[in-house]
């Protein structure tokens, strides 16, 4: 009986996670908005248990936060100063990851990286004006950077990048409308891929730095 209840509940929690994430991505839940579990349960016609599980998962993404005595709420948008500091941190970490990945390229790695570049290219027409297009942009962009981090074979640098994941989710979500710069990002990803394919690790590192500097400038302009 316990196994049966669990197998029924887990898919509901997964579904609630997807529903709430989609609401965040399409702007139906705004920065700082309270997320009352009882009200959500009535709105979405589910029990509170799967909602708690879904909100706990969203908390780990950085898109939702929980405060003692207040419960869950949508995370606040990053300030311009926080965005600048976040991008500065990435500029310390990611060029070195690209350099190390460039010294260790394999055909399999390059094939996977090329697939993310092609996926990102496909999102360009819709990334700024369609929630589903933005979600695809977000996941393709993230996959590109995570693949390079994994290929660096430096778990400490990779962990340093992962430690920024929650803040990067907030950055992507709350700075998206009309400001993703998807076309620029797609071109920059392809240039980094070309450098890695040419086994020019120094160029890949330089291009990665320029890519992050460009993203910072586009958001803060």
Automatic annotation (TrEMBL):
Domain of life where this protein originates: Bacteria
A GO term, aspect molecular function: DNA binding
Record flagged with keyword GTP-binding: no
Any Pfam family the entry gives: FCD
PROSITE patterns assigned: HTH_GNTR
Keyword hit for Transcription: yes
Keywords: DNA-binding, Transcription, Transcription regulation
InterPro entries reported in the protein's UniProt record: GntR_C, TF_FadR/GntR_C, Tscrpt_reg_HTH_GntR, WH-like_DNA-bd_sf, WH_DNA-bd_sf
Chain ranges of the HTH gntR-type domain: 10-77
The protein's name: DNA-binding transcriptional regulator, GntR family
């Amino acid at each position: 009986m316990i196994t049966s209840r669990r197998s029924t509940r887990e898919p509901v929690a997964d579904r609630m996670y997807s529903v709430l994430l989609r609401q965040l991505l399409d702007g139906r839940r705004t920065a700082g908005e309270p997320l009352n579990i009882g009200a959500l349960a009535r709105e979405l016609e589910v029990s509170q248990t799967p909602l708690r599980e879904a909100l706990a998962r969203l908390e780990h993404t950085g898109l939702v936060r929980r405060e003692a005595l207040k419960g869950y709420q949508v995370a606040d948008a990053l300030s311009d100063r926080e965005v600048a500091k976040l991008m500065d941190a990435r500029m310390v970490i990611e060029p070195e990851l690209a350099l190390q990945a460039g010294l260790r390229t394999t055909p399999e790695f390059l094939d996977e990286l090329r697939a993310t570049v092609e996926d990102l290219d496909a999102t360009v027409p819709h990334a700024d004006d369609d929630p589903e297009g933005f979600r695809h942009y977000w996941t393709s962009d993230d996959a590109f950077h995570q693949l390079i981090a994994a290929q660096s074979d430096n778990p400490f640098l990779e962990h340093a990048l992962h430690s920024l994941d929650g803040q990067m989710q907030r950055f992507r979500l709350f700075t998206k409308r009309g400001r993703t710069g998807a076309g620029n990002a797609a071109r920059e990803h392809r240039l980094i891929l070309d450098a890695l394919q040419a086994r020019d690790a120094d160029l890949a590192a330089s291009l990665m730095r320029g890519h992050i500097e460009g993203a910072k400038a586009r958001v803060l302009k």
